[in-house]
Design goal:
The protein has 97 residues and is mainly α. The chain has a domain of 35 residues. The longest helix is centred in the middle third of the chain and has 37 residues. Helices cover 74% and strands 0% of the residues. The chain is built from 3 helices and no strands.
Amino acid sequence: MTRKQSIFISVAVVLLFSLLCFIIFSEHGLVDLNTLKKERDQLVEKNELLSDENLTLSAEIDRLQHDPKYIESIARQELGMVGQDELILKPQSSPKP
């Protein structure tokens, strides 16, 4: 091998190594690509959870709009309401000795 060929090969190897480093570590390189893929996967998972929550809330909204018994049960549980023909009995507390 002549001196020109060895210099040419050395320069080519250095350029290829530089190009490889640029591809891996540059702003839009493989490291950034992997980070973006992880972020995308997290967003897809969060989106699925929000979709499930939306379906649950949509079903509850529908029940609140069309199911009187459900509305009554919610009023009893959350607001402590009683029916029109019901009596509230409170036990008397015994006096402390």
